[in-house]
Design brief:
Blueprint lengths: L1 E8 L8 H15 L15 E3 L8 E10 L14 H6 L6 E8 L7 H4 E9 L5 H6 L10 E6 L2 E6 L4 E6 L6 E6 L7 H8 L9 E11 L2 E4 L9 H7 L1
Parallel strand pairs: 3-10
Antiparallel strand pairs: 1-3, 1-4, 2-3, 5-9, 5-10, 6-7, 8-9, 10-11
Length: 237
């Protein structure tokens, strides 16, 4: 049996790295007593895989992890309704488990299937006009950004990675859709382009959705139940 978990990462815990967060999840699974399958070999590890890494310093209400349970575990052995609270109580403050669902056996991995993410960006130094002006990037034929990864510098045209930019209804933040196929554009890099008058490090980023492409239709990896208000969690963080 395989599970797919959607969780949030909010507040001070946003400064933990992707690897640190993975270790926290391993400890939480042990504390919760979940019968997780293990890899073979001299150093067995729990069979779990994460979605797209969240940049350190960013927050999210759409983080995913796939967990494989031991072979003798069947659906009747796991109460999916109580599992979010069971896992959430074993995680550090700042992590909340929002929904757990059984994953189809043949479904592709998150790393392979997610094609874009939606982000919300805001800062006390930015105004509604700043967020509205950010839409100018959509009119640019190209946006060349110099960046360094793994010790190598390159100049990349990142315009194709920006799918949409729109102010949120309150006007105090921008909602941005960024493609994840290829060398993805990080929200901090987008902030450098969109808000030249402020330090991009002062702009906070919240990932709200990870999207799949199903026959040309955009679908969320794991939608939230109607009774789960993840936006309220983000406001409180």
């Amino acid at each position: 049996m395989k599970l797919r978990v959607r969780s949030s990462k909010l507040g001070k815990v946003r400064f933990t790295s992707h690897r640190d967060a993975a270790r926290m999840w391993e400890r939480a699974l042990r504390r919760a007593g979940l019968p997780v399958a293990a890899t073979e070999g001299f150093t067995p590890r729990p069979k779990m895989s994460f979605g797209l890494a969240l940049p350190t310093g960013a927050e999210s209400i759409a983080e995913y992890v796939d967990i494989e349970l031991q072979r003798d575990v069947v659906a009747d052995d796991v109460d999916l309704n109580t599992l979010p609270a069971r896992l959430g109580s074993a995680l550090p403050i700042g992590f909340d488990v929002l929904v757990v669902a059984e994953r189809e056996q043949r479904i592709e991995s998150l790393q392979e299937s997610v094609t874009s993410c939606t982000w919300e960006l805001w800062s006390p130094r930015l105004t509604a006009e700043d967020h509205a002006d950010a839409r100018r990037l959509l009119e640019a034929p190209e946006l060349v950004l110099e960046r360094e990864r793994k010790g190598k510098r390159s100049a990349d045209d990142v315009r194709p990675m920006i799918l949409d930019i729109r102010p949120d209804p309150a006007g105090d933040r921008a909602v941005v859709d960024l493609a994840t196929v290829g060398r993805a554009l990080r929200p901090g890099e987008f902030a450098e382009l969109a808000y030249p008058r402020v330090d991009a490090r002062d702009v906070r980023a919240l990932r709200t959705h990870q999207w799949l492409d199903r026959d040309g239709e955009r679908r969320e990896v794991l939608p939230l139940p109607a009774d789960v208000d993840a936006r309220a969690l983000a406001v409180l963080a």
